[in-house]
Amino acid sequence: MSKRLRPTRLEHVLDGVSLRARLSAAALDAIGDEAEQRRRALDILRQALFRGRMIAKERLENGAGGIETARLLSGVTDEVVSALYDFTTVHVFRARNPTEGERLALMAVGGYGRGALAPFSDLDLLFLRPYKQTPHAESVIEFMLYALWDLGFKVGHASRTVDECLRLSREDFTIRTSVLEARHLTGDEALAEDLIRRFRDEVVRGTGAQFVAAKLKERDERHLRAGASRYMVEPNIKEGKGGLRDLNTLFWIARYLNPVASADRASGVIQLDMFDRREVASFLRAIDFLWAVRCHMHFATGRPEERLTFDLQPAIARRMGYGDRGDAPAVERFMRRYFLIAKEVGALTRVFTAKLEEERVKSQPGALSRLLPGRGRARRREVAPGFFAEGGRLHVEGPAVFEADPVNLLRLFLHADREGLDLHPDAFTAASRHAAEIGPRVRRDPAAAEVLLDILARGRDPQRALTLMNEADVLGRYLPEWSRIVAKMQFNMYHSYTVDEHTLRAVGVIAGIADGRYAEDHPLATAIMPLINDREALFLAMLLHDTGKGGAGGQEKAGARAARQACERLGQSRKRIELVAWLVEHHLVMSDYAQKRDISDPRTVVDFARIVETPERMRLLLVLTVADIRAVGPGVWNGWKGQLLRELYRATEALFRGGRGADDAAAIRRYHENAAYDARMRLTVSSPALTGWAQSMEDAYFTAFTDDEVRAHGALVRRAAETGAAIACRIRPDLNAAEVSVSATDRPRLFADLAAALNLAGANVMGARVHTSRRGEALDVFFVQDASGAAFGADNPRALDRLMSLLESAGRGEALKRDGRPPAELGRAAAFAITPTVMLDNDASEAATVIEATGRDRPGLLSALAEVIADAGLSIVSAHIDGYCERAVDAFYVVDDQGRKLEDPDRTTRLRADLLAALEAVDAQPNPRSRAHLQKARASIAR
C-alpha cells in the first residue's frame, strides 16, 4: 500500500487572492468588450480548475486519503465558483448602489454543501434572494450558470427566497436534506445565516421523528434499486448497500436530531456522547476508503462513474497500491478490503440508527416508535438465563453474560432465531466486541457445537441467524475455516456475491427446499429431502463447501481438508466427518457430469455412479448442487440445468435400483434397450408409418424424449425427406429455452452449418442433442435462449421465424448470407485474462472421443469450434454447452468418418492447436470501441 501523504493547504494549490487579481486584470485589459472579458476569464478559471484537479489526482495516486482529496477538490471548486461570482458582480453586472431586493447569497447545498466533492460530481448551488427575482439577480445567475457549464460542470441549481426554501423544505424531504447541508460560499452572508437559523427553528425543531422515518424508508428503497446485498461483486460505491450514501444517511439523521452539534462536514462525523471512539474511528476509516475509491474511479474514467464494475476493478486496485500476493491477485485483495469496509458500514449503520432512535425515545417517548415498525415498547420477558425480550428485540443482561460463558455468544443468535426476534443494538455490539472470547476451548466445547447445529440444521431461518453471526464476527471466530472466506471475492462474472454471502444464501436455499418453498422450481430436490438420513451433514457440507477457495491443492481438496478439520473440532462422528468431507470435495461433480457430459452415454452414468457409490450420497449431492447453483446469483439457475440434473439422477437411480454388478455399462445398455423396445412398441401402435424410422434410431434416443416428442420427431423426419430439411420449434417455459428440432439428410459439416445459422440469428445455445438414424436421417435438437437469458423468441415471434428460416436453409446446405458485422464488444468481460484450454479424452465415452474446450465466451464461439471439428473430418455425436459468464466450457462427443474414436496422435495434436486458435481469436481481433488502456486481471476459475 502507498504511504499516506500529509494534508496540504488549499492556498498551496490554488491562491484565491491571486486568482481574483488575474481575473480583474483580464477584465480591465478587455474593458468594453464583454465577450472578450468572458473568454479570458473562463480561460483563467479553466486553468486554475485543471491545476487544482491534477494536483488532487497526483496526491491521491501517491497516497493521499479519500477525505483529504474530496476536501481539496471541494476547496478548489469553492475558489473557482467564488471567484467567478466576484468577477460577475464586479466586472460584468455590478450593482453600485444595491437595493435590499438585490441582495444575493450563493450557497453550496447537497453533497457539495458537505464540503466534499468527487472529481466529476454535480455542483448543487442555491442562489438565495431576500425577495422576488430582480433583473440584476437574474442576469448574475444566468451569466454564472452558462460560465459554469462552459467550464464543464454539471450544475444542479435553484434560485429561491428564504421563505420559499422553508416552505419547500416542509413539503419535500429531499429538499429538506439538501438545505440541511447548506453552506455559504460567497455573497450576502447575513442572508445565508438567516436561512440556516430559520431552517433550524421553523423546519427542524420538533420533526426529528418524521425525518428519521423518511430517511430510513428512503434508504431501504435505494437498497432495493441498487441491489439488496452489500456483497454484490460489482457494487455501487455511492448508492449501494454499505456505500457512501449509507454513511451520509447516518450523518443526516445525527445532524438533524442534534443541529447545534459541531460537525466536520467532509468526514461526516458528529461528535455525540452516545457513540464511543471505536465507532467514530470505524466511521472515519470507512468513509475515507470509500471516498478514495470513488475519486479514483472518477479520475480513471473521466466521468462520474459510481459502479465499481469488473473492467474498473483491476485498475483501481493498482491505483490504490494493491499488488499480487501469492495466489491472491491484487484485484481480489482490493475487493476483499472493500467488502470488509462494507461489512463495517453495515454493522455501524445498524448500531448507529438504533441508538439514535433509542436516545430519541428516551427524550420523547413513542416519538420514533410510532413511525418505525416493531419498535413499540413492550413488557420485558425472560427468554433464557441472561437473555430477555423487550420491544421486539432480544437483549442481554450485560457483557458479563458473554464473559462468564462465551458459548452464550452463539446462544444469543439461537434464541433470536427461535423467538423470531431482532437483536438489540447493544446486544449485537456486545457480541461483536466480545467475539475474541471465543478461543480453542470454546471451539471444542460440545455445547457450542450443539448450538451451531441447532441454528444451522434445525433453525427457523438459518440464513438470517448465520448472517447476523457473520456480521458480528462470531461465526468467523468460532469457525476459523469460515474466517478465510469472509468478504472474499472471486474475480469472475459468474458469481454475483462474495463467497460468504453466496454460502449463506445456499444454506437458505436448502432450508427453503426442506420447508417446501421451492417445490415448483425444484420438485426432485423437494421430494427426496425427507429421504435424507443425515441433515446435519448436508447443512455442514453446505456451510463449508467453499472454504477451500484459494487453498493449496485446489478448491475441492483444500475444502475437504478444511471440512474434515472443522468437523473434528466440532466433535462429530467419524462417519459424519468423512461424509461431509466427501460432499465438499465432490460438490461440483454432479453439475459437471450433468452439464458437460452425454447422459445417454452409458459411461457417463457408470462413472458418476462409481463416484457417488450410494443412493444416499447421490441424494445429498443433488440437494447440495441445486442450492449451490441457485445461490450463485440471479438468473444462473434455470429449468434446463434442472432437467439435466434430474436426468442424471434418474439414470443413476435406475442403475442402483437394478443392482451394481461387474459390468455396469452393460446394465445401462440393457436399461436403454428395454426402454427403447417399449417405446418402439407404443409408437408402432399409435403411428405405424414411423416403425421403420424408429427401428433405425439408437436405443439411447428413446430415453431422452417422451412418446409425444418421439412422434413429433418422426413426423418431422418424414417431412424433411420430402423437402430436404424441416424445422419445428416450441417454447419451453419449464426449461427457460426454446426447443428447436432440425431434421435433414446427414452430411459432413451439418452441425457446423446449423451452429452458424444459430449464431447469425443471435441465439445462444444451451445444449444440443444430436441423433442420426442408420438410414442417414439426422435429427438435431437445440435448446436456445436470447441474450437476456429468456427463451429465444418467446416475446419476438419474428426472431423465431427468422431462426427457423436460417436453420432450414442451413439444413439443405444452402450458403448463409453473413451480415458483415464487426466483432461484438466484450464490455466488462474484457477485463478478464482467460487462458484457453483444450482437452481430448478417449476414456470418458465407450464410442466417442470427448473434446472439452474452455475459453472466453463470445457470440459465434460454438460455430467456430464446430467449423474446426468439421474441417478435421470429424462428426459431432453430441454437444454440451456450459458457460460461466465470461468463460465458456463446450464439450463435444466426436467420431471420425469410420465412426471410431480419434486415436491418431498427429491428428489429435493438429486438432488441439486449431481449437486453441479458434478460442484465442477473439482476443486477437482489434476493437476500436473497447476502452483504451484497460488493465486486465486473471479471471478466477473457482466455482
What this model shows, in words?
- The chain is an alpha+beta fold and 943 residues long.
- 54% of the residues lie in helices and 12% in strands.
- It has 39 helices and 20 strands.
- α11 packs parallel to α14, α20 runs antiparallel to α23 and α30 runs antiparallel to α31.
- The longest helix is centred in the middle third of the chain and has 34 residues.
- The chain is globular.
- The two termini are 29 Å apart.
- About 1% of the residues have low confidence.
Identify low-pLDDT runs. 365-371
Strand-residue proportion: 5-15%
> Helix amount, in percent?
40-55%
Can you count the beta strands? 20
CA gyration radius, whole angstroms: 34 Å
> What distance lies between the first and last C-alpha atoms, to the nearest angstrom?
29 Å
The global form is globular
- Structural class based on helices, strands and sheet pairing: alpha+beta
In the sheet with the most strands, the strands line up as 11-12-14-13-18-19-17-16
Count helical runs. 39
* Largest β-sheet summary: 8 strands, antiparallel
Q: What is the average of the pLDDT values?
A: 87
Write a concise synopsis of the structure shown.
With 943 residues, the chain is of the alpha+beta class. Strand 7 (381-384) and strand 8 form a beta hairpin. Helix 29 (602-612) crosses helix 32.
Helices and strands, with pairings:
Blueprint: H1 10-13, H2 16-29, H3 34-61, H4 66-92, E1 105-108, H5 110-113, E2 123-129, H6 135-150, E3 155-161, H7 162-171, H8 173-180, E4 183-187, H9 189-204, H10 208-226, H11 244-257, E5 263-264, E6 269-270, H12 277-301, H13 313-319, H14 330-363, E7 381-384, E8 387-390, E9 393-396, H15 400-404, H16 408-419, E10 422-423, H17 425-433, H18 440-443, H19 446-458, H20 462-471, H21 474-478, H22 480-483, H23 499-515, H24 523-528, H25 535-544, H26 555-569, H27 574-585, H28 589-596, H29 602-612, H30 615-630, H31 639-658, H32 664-686, H33 691-696, H34 699-704, H35 707-723, E11 725-732, E12 737-745, H36 750-761, E13 764-772, E14 777-785, H37 797-811, E15 832-833, E16 837-841, E17 849-856, H38 861-871, E18 875-884, E19 887-895, H39 905-924, E20 937-938
Parallel strand pairs: 2-3, 9-10, 15-20
Antiparallel strand pairs: 1-2, 1-4, 5-6, 7-8, 8-9, 11-12, 12-14, 13-14, 13-18, 16-17, 17-19, 18-19
